[in-house]
Amino acid sequence: MHAWPASEVPALPGQGRDLRIHDTATGGPVTLDPGPVARIYVCGITPYDATHIGHAATYNAFDLVQRVWLDTKRQVHYVQNVTDVDDPLLERADRDGVDWAALAEQETALFREDMTALRMLPPRHYIGAVEAIPGIVPLVERLRDLGAAYELEGDIYFSVESDPHFGQVSNLDAAAMRLLSAERGGDPERPGKKNPVDPMLWMAAREGEPSWDGGSLGRGRPGWHIECVAIALDHLGMGFDVQGGGSDLVFPHHEMGASHAQVLTGEFPMAKAYVHAGMVALHGEKMSKSKGNLVFVSALRRDGVDPAAIRLALLAHHYRADWEWTDQVLRDAEARLGRWRAAVSRPDGPPAEALVEEIREALADDLDAPAALAAVDRWVGLQEASGGTDTGAPGVVSRAVDALLGVAL
User: Fold this and answer.
1) Could you say which of 69, 238, 283, 297 would form a disulfide bridge with 38 (CB–CB 3.0 to 4.6 Å)?
2) C-alpha distances in angstroms, 67 versus 78, 83, 364?
3) Looking at the predicted structure, is the pLDDT value of residue 209 above 80?
């Protein structure tokens, strides 16, 4: 599966700072010091309703991670999946009377278009669950051989008790895990499971649903968590720098994925930092496909909204914060974009070298994009109030905003 084209990232003088970021597993900040190649895995969409603002906010956060690392002169090995077969996708296809594979392809194509418009840097590897199945089957077989998986009426489950580190990503108690498992695709009430929150690794073929040859597992399709594990281990290996996604993936998805990988490899941890973006609400409720309260990037674009304004609207909120999308949020972003573009179109301005360092400092401090935006606002305000004599400054600002914030002025 191919990703989307990369926008050029302007080179800046000097060098960025190492990223200090909040780690969900420890509940506090960690300073990441990757080698020459920084490794990041971000969980992708289930392509049946793309791309809403909640998606965009999440991928914007991890785009900033990439930009901070690139500014430190590192290479970035970024991997993202597409869950192109799963219950929600099949249910939506059945509801709409369309082929599930065609729906997945259509929504993935739309997602690529939106990511391109928003100047999100693409992953090096963009892998669908279906194409990953040949690599998933041996992992499930190995977990079974290790005694970490068991069969229940033809389905194969992972035993969470097989990982001594289980629970160390989310740090939730058993009751909270059971509740979230039920809400987020698990089946804690199914009789016969060793532990109510044990996740499915391989679902035996169901009538009328797609299935694949699973070798000794029989025909079926993979569970959600093992999909990401297979892709991450194949392309990044264990101990990669950042596992990313929305905060709704902390449990069960990232918790289960970590346990799968740790049992498979005997190594700990799967990732050096588990980083999660906040949720975006609309009309007082979390924006979600199940509730249908979605604002789509493609719809905003069709209405003539500049993608750079959408991006500025996202950047105005700290990536870990929960926030609400409103018309005013977009109006404020459009006004800011207009002021910034007017500023960099003038022939001169105040010196900008200190501004570049302010942006770097803000982003290195747990991706504090609102602080970075405030720094640019101050430079623009100075230029509006008293002009300036540095003819190179507008160009420096334009390149810095593009390289570090992904906004083309």
Assistant:
1) 69
2) 12, 25, 10
3) yes
Position 289 confidence tier, pLDDT thresholds 50, 70, 90: low
For the CA atoms of 65, 360, 382, 326, what is the dihedral angle to 10 degrees? 20
| C-beta separation of 190 from 287 below 8 A | no
Tell me, what's the pLDDT at 184?
A: 95
Task: Please compute the mean of the pLDDT values over residues 324-328 and round it to a whole number.
Answer: 96
Domain of 63 in residue numbering reads as: 1-409
Instruction: Put the strands of the sheet holding 271-277 in their side by side order.
Output: 125-128, 75-82, 37-42, 240-246, 271-277
Number of domains in the chain: 1
Q: DSSP letter string over 86-145?
A: SHHHHHHHHHHT--HHHHHHHHHHHHHHHHHHTTPPPPSEEEEHHHHHHHHHHHHHHHHH
Other CB atoms within 10 A of residue 383 CB: 23
Q: With a cut of 80, say whether residue 45 has pLDDT above it.
A: yes
Domain CATH code at residue 69: 3.40.50.620
Give the C-alpha separation, 23 to 20, whole Å: 9
By CB atoms closer than 10 A (0-12, 13-18, 19+), residue 5 is exposed
What count of residues does the chain have?
Answer: 409
Beta strand 37-42 pairing with 240-246: parallel
Across the range 361-384, mean pLDDT stands at: 98
Using the structure block, give the residue that is written with the tokens 């281990």: 233
**Mean pLDDT over residues 34-55, rounded?**
95
285: which 2 tokens? 């409720």
Long-range Cβ pairs for the range 189-197 (8 Å, 24+): 190/152, 192/152, 192/153, 193/152, 193/157, 194/150, 194/157, 194/159, 194/161, 195/159, 195/160, 195/161, 197/160, 197/252
- Averaged pLDDT for residues 208-228: 97
How far apart are the C-alpha atoms of 136 and 209, rounded to whole Å? 19
